[in-house]
Amino acid sequence: MMLSKNSGRGHRGLQESMYSVISLLFILVACVELCDAAAAIDVYRLIQYDMSGSAFGSRFAALNHHAASLHFPPGADLSRTVLIIPLRELNITFVRDYINQKKLLGGLLFLLPEIFNPGNGGNKQVHEREKLKNVLAELERLLIHANLPYPVYFAFENNEIDTVLADIKKNDATGQPATATTGGYKLVIPTPEPKKVASPTITNIQGWLSGLKADGDMNQLPTIAIVASYDTFGAAPALSMGSDSNGSGIVALLEIARLFSLLYSNPKTRGRYNLLFGLTSGGPYNYNGTQKWLRSFDQRLRESIDYAICLNSIGSWYNELWIHVSKPPDNAYIKQIFEGFLNVAEELDIKVGLKHKKINISNPRVAWEHEQFSRLRVTGATLSQIPVAPELLESTGGLFDSRQFVNETAITRGVKLVAESFARHIYGHQGKNVKIFADGGSLAVNPAYVQSWLDLLSRTPRVAPFLSKNDPFVMALKKELADHTDEVNLQHEILEGMFTFYDSTSATLNIYQVASVAFDLVLLLVLGSYLIVLFCFLVITTRGLDDLISLFRRPHSRKVKTA
Q1: What pTM was computed for the model?
Q2: Which end of the chain is more exposed for a tag (fewer CB within 10 A), N or C?
Q3: Does domain 201-494 have CATH number 3.40.50.2000?
Q4: Which residue spans traverse the membrane (predicted)?
C-alpha cells in the first residue's frame, strides 16, 4: 500500500516536472526571436491625401520590417526592408529614381537634423543650414507629389537612433543586409491603417475697427482690409509649422491690429476708414477659406472695400519685397497703392517691386490670396518676399520652413512699411515724411510681441484638416484679435474642393535588435540539451535509472485474442 502511494506521488511529481519543463520550453522558443528594444522614438508620417481622385503621399502606416542603410549591397531585395536615410547623406537622385521606377520597399525613414526640430534650433553654420534647407525642400516637393505604396516617416536625429544606424551600417558593410535569416534591427509601428478625415472644417477669424463718421454723414465709410492665411501644408502634417509661410504674415497682421487699436481707441486719432482684419484658413487649397469669407459679405460691405492687402511670407527677406497685383500697373488704384508703399519704403531703406499677374477667370486656380478679391472685383494686392507665383502646394509652410530661417527684424520692418503706408492713406499724409509709428514712441512696433507670437507659431502645426473648430490655437488667435478690435467673429465652413485627407500623422517607432536564425538554432540546441539533461535528472532522482531506461525501451507487443 505504501509502495503504491509513493509510486503515485512519483508519477505526479514526474508529471509536474514534465509540465514545467514543457512550459519553459514554449516560453523560451516564443521569446527567442526578439531581444530588448534598442530604442523608442517619435516619428511623423508623410501626408496621405487624394487630389481630384488621384492618390498621393504615403498610403500605409503600419510597419514591421528589418532596417537597412544606404550601404546595402547592389541587387539586394528591399521589399521587406526599411531604408533609414539621414538628410545629410541624402542622394536625391537615388530617391527620385527609386520612386519613379516604382521599386518595392518595406518603408522609408528620413532622419532630420535638429535645426528643423521646433523644440531645438541647433547651432549649425549658416551655409550648412541653407544647404540642408534646400535639400529638404527638394525632397519635400518630390514626396508630396508621389504615390508611395509603403509607409514613409520622418524622425529627428538623436543619440539613440545614431547608435542604431551606426550598427546597421556596420552590418550592411559586410554585404549581408538584415533579414530574418541574418538578424539585425527590426522597426515596428503597430498602428491601424489610416482613415479618411470626414468633413474637415476650416475657420475664418474676422476682426473689425470702426472708423469715425462726421456728424450727419450717412454714407458708409470706406474700408481697408488686412488679410493673412494662417494654416499650412507640408510633407509631414505634424511638423508643418510654417514659421515664414505664413507665420510671419499672421504676426504682422496681429501687430498692425495692435498698433491701430491704439490709434482708434481715441476719437481724436480715429481715422475715417474702417479696418477689416481677416485671418483665413484653407490657404494651401486654393485659398478656399478666403473665397468663402468674401462670399459671405453683403454687397454693401464688399463695395466699401477701398483695397485689400494680403500678407504672405515676409519673414526671411533682406532688402526687397514684392507687391503682387492682378490689375494692370497703370490702374489708378494700383498706382495709388504702390506709390504709397514706395514712398515709405524709400524712407525705411527697403526696396519694393511691383509684379503683375493677370488672372484667368475660367481657371479656378489662384496663386495669391488677393486673386480671390480680384475675382469679386475688389482691388487687392499681396505683399511677399516671394518674387514669382508659387505652384499649388508650394511655399505653404512645409518641413524646411522652421524658426531658424525667420528673422523677426524682417517682420518688424515689414510691419512698419504696411502700418505707415496705411496711416498715411487714412490720414491724408501721402507723400509726406511723417512717421506715425516712430521707434521709441508710444506707437512704436513692439519687437518682443513679434518674437513671442513668432515663437508660438513656430511650434504649432496648422494643417487645416487636422484643426478642429475649437482648436486651442484657433481660440488663441480669436482672443488675441479680440483684444485689439471691436468686433470679432468666427466663420466655420467645410473644406470643399478636390482634396481628401487621411489621419494617422504621428506614431511611436519601436526598434528591436533581433538575433539571426543561426543564433536561434544554437540557442535552441543548448536549451534542448539542458532540458533533456534536466528531465533525465528528475526521472532518476524520483523513480530511478531503470524507469528512465524503460521510457526509451520498446514496449512488448500484445496479442489480442478474438472470440
Answers
A1: 0.85
A2: C
A3: no
A4: 521-545
